[in-house]
Amino acid sequence: MKQAVVLGAYGFIGAACVRALQARGYAVRCAGRSERAARRAFPGLDWALFDFATADVGTWRKALSGADVVVNASGALQDGARDNLVAIHETAVARMSEALAGTDTRFVQISAAGVSSDASSSFFRTKARGDTLVMASRLDWIVLRPVLVLGPEAYGGTALLRASAALPLAGARIFSDAQIQTIHVEDLAEAVAECADGQRGSRFVADLTEDHGQSFLELTRTMRDWQGFPPWKITVPVPEPLVWGLGRVADMLGWLGWRSPLRTNALLPLNAGIHGDPDTWRQQGGRRIGPLAQTLDRLPATVQERSFARVYLALPLSILCLSLFWLLSGVIGVLSFNAATEVLTSAGYSAVFAGTAVLGGAVLDISLGLAVLWRRWCRSACLGMLAVSATYLASGTLLTPELWADPLGPLVKIFPAMMLALFVALLLEER
Predict the structure, then answer these.
(1) Pairing outcome for strands 179-180 and 214-215
(2) Mean pLDDT over residues 303-332, rounded?
(3) Rounded to whole angstroms, how far apart are CA atoms 147 and 188?
(4) Which of 6, 258, 324, 417 is the most exposed place for a label (fewest CB within 10 A)?
(5) Is the pLDDT of residue 326 over 90?
(6) Is 358 helix (H, G, I), strand (E, B) or coil?
(7) With bands split at pLDDT 50, 70 and 90, how would you rate the model's confidence at 431?
């Protein structure tokens, strides 16, 4: 049986490649760096789990040994707390090539349409340099460069596209002159499988794209119609400084572990357009890539699809709301120290106890408000908020039960805060 290794196999594109290769009779081994994501994606397959960015040649040689074909579907959008573009797109590719030197293994590199050494995006520049390393090697290589990939799974830019299409009341008009072409993820995976089988030759670079593109506004309108929402009555131009400002904020959040599709490396290609030339793929005997309308016909627009699109933008706003709520609660507790302690001392408790309770609660609130902003600790912070809120309810009922009758409802208002924390904890999924 033919052996294939898919790198980044639990990703959007990598998982589709695994399924396409299995359908052609390959025994597929997978490689990734997250055990949790790996077990969720393909629990029955053999996995090599290690950090691609730091793995040495010996680690790669072991992971790729015996493979008839290696598919590199790994990558990262932007430098951040969890990602290093040079390490992932260049260093890792160089070490893979060295590990495979002298073998007959076919190497299929999945890159991106529009990459070049002088591109405005560091994602495109590092991808281009990685492609150059592959093409300079003596491997049996193929480089495929897809345009915007759509599929049933919503992740990153495709999730943002769905959310943009589901905006209520009015559509957002941005990057009006940019043209965007698309491809169905299964068409991309099938192209990879054809290359793995040797049906398309060797040592060539090809864009994978539909023939014609559309503007970002046309694309979102088409997606909105597919989702089943009524057409927008108006569209509102979004000032570019605001768009780039949001991108900079998303970049900073990347250093807290958040992989936002609003980062500048995602916005730059949208601004320039995402397009490719299908001619080389056709010359290699590849079939025509279906247009956007055909892609959407193959994707069901269910109630789950619509619900996800509406909730997607609500999640970051909910995290921001939680952070501000807990931070302000702690800061106000410190600034209103005397008034806060008086509530307890007037109920008969000592000044020491009251001061300790108020300051301790303020420090805890501020800590949780900061922790929820860090991706690694966000879910734990939300669970902590639930636990602390329950403690506040219990202690408030025990120490100052009269607050239940307070017209401002300080204890009653804890319940919606708890539900918001639960909402965020339940929705924190990436793959």
Answers:
(1) antiparallel
(2) 91
(3) 10
(4) 324
(5) yes
(6) helix
(7) low
420: Cβ–Cβ under 8 A, 6 or more apart, which residues? 318, 321, 322, 325
Question: Residue 339, exposed/middle/buried by CB under 10 A (0-12, 13-18, 19+)?
Answer: exposed
Element (H, E) at 279: helix 279-283
Model confidence pLDDT, tens digit, residues 8-59: 999 999 999 999 999 999 999 999 998 888 888 899 999 999 999 999 999 9
Domain made up of 3-312: CATH architecture:
3-Layer(aba) Sandwich (3.40)
Calculate Rg over the CA atoms of the chain.
Answer: 26
3-state secondary structure of 383: helix
Domain map of the chain by residue range? 3-312, 316-427
Sign of the Cα pseudo-torsion (402, 408, 410, 415, in order)? positive
pLDDT over threshold 90, residue 155: no
Residue scoring higher pLDDT (168 or 357): 168
| pTM metric for this prediction | 0.86
Q: What is the mean pLDDT of residues 207-234?
A: 94
- Give the angle subtended at the CA of 309 by the CAs of 307 and 314, to the nearest 5°: 90
